[in-house]
Amino acid sequence: MRIDLTPRANRSALTDALAPVLAFLAALVIGGGVVAAMGRSPAAAFVTYFVAPLSELWSLQEVALKAAPLALIATGLAFCFRANVWNIGAEGQFVVGGLFGGWIGVAAHGATGNTLWVLPAMLIVGTLAGMLYALIPALLKVRLGVSEILTSLMLVYVAELLLDYMARGPLRDPAGFNFPQSVTFDDAARLPYLMEGDTLHAGVAIALAAVVVATLVLARTLFGFTVRVVGASPRAARFAGFSDARLTLAVFAVSGGAAGLAGIAEVAGKIGQLQPSISPGYGFTAIIVAFLGRLSPVGILVAALVIALTTIGGEGAQIDLKLPLDLTRAFQGLLLALVLGADALSRYRVRLVPGAAA
Prior knowledge:
mainly alpha; two-stranded antiparallel sheet; sugar transport; transmembrane helix; membrane; Simple sugar transport system permease protein
């Protein structure tokens, strides 16, 4: 017996809208069953994961701070994935952006006079660093036909080792008692706080602005139209005169620039200095966020908030319910699988063909 998927002739907009909601509810049911099997209360777990982080101001700010880099990176990745090219190395581009942008902050430490240029220079350098780093696998793909999946992923480890070396060596604070970290950035090299006395910084506003810009670019510009056409029908795009090579370079530059900007925003915002590690895996988690958001900037923003919410809730569940953090990661992976499955069922009709070879 063979399983065939045939496109639905008349797709329902309501079904498309309800598919991720139903997938989320299914993930809650499955997750609740796992929690119950571990001897914990599913109701208490639901409150800890999804209600408690929304009940206090500090936890709401933490959700926003975790969602911002995820939304920014995933929005850039959406351009690649929509064009059917695969940038799996956003984590490395995030790290490189934080490293080279942060280098400016270290070099400007203790500077006197007009220092208004420092923060803009850090943001620009971080963005350009991520962009150039992303162009390495893009050029290898365009010129030599090398798989961008492998090269972009392998470059993640190069970036992480480079940051580790720089934080422990050339950029280490000489007065830092041999700790592997740079000097703490001056105020001129830090992102301003959105509210006095709180932890919410301007990196959140940058992520929101990126979502708005990406929405307009994809919907209203020739570049966005090109990305959509190439992703939907590469052969038709070639007949229309669109260049696969130029588009590959462009979307890698966009995604790498977004990841690099997220990296320097994290360093100049929440962290405030260079360390051997500046990312808890934002670049890899953003891949999940991009697909959870259906490669739509607005959907990505919602997905980033959901993932950030479960991450903060998972940290609380570790303390309150003694649940392992791996359960949170498993739930996020399950949610992605269910959303993709629900999308497939809303677009295709499943048909069993008896007597046919698989």
